């Protein structure tokens, strides 16, 4: 029970056993009063609670590398396929490769100081280092820290404000980022919160 946190939402009366379980595991116990209250309680659990540091707890660090995507100028072996006895994917193989050659001519590959690979995410077979790209790490991080809700603001008549992303004129309403105060239209606001989970003005 050291690393388990339980939170319960009850539909009926308060249950002592459920409440004691939540208190013991440092969770949250709630009783829904109506349908609207239930939606509010569920929204509170969408964002995961912060992990509380315990006495003597040490951070676990994952070492990873970010290889560069470069063009291959000479015949080479792909570490993520050739060392495993597999053929490189057809999308990564140059059509001019010699069929009799044991090495696949890759037009581009991910180079790190120890080896190079045709696909990411991969584990370096030489040094055991996790290799990935910066966008892959950003997509994984967005689920830990979601984009805050933009504040809705009215646009005054005669204003020449434009959306920061698509550069369309904002006629009636704008959605303002609380961190950088950039203005967005409704379409870009939906795209940022539902798909990208990152504010382009903040970055």
Automatic annotation (TrEMBL):
SMART domains noted in UniProt: C1_4
InterPro entries on file: C1-like_sf, Ssl1-like, TFIIH_C1-like_dom, TFIIH_SSL1/p44, vWFA_dom_sf, Znf_RING/FYVE/PHD, Znf_ZZ
Keywords carried by this UniProt record: Metal-binding, Zinc, Zinc-finger
Transmembrane segments: none
Pfam families: C1_4, Ssl1
Cited NCBIfam families: ssl1 (TIGR00622)
Protein name according to UniProt: ZZ-type domain-containing protein
Species this protein is from: Heterodera schachtii
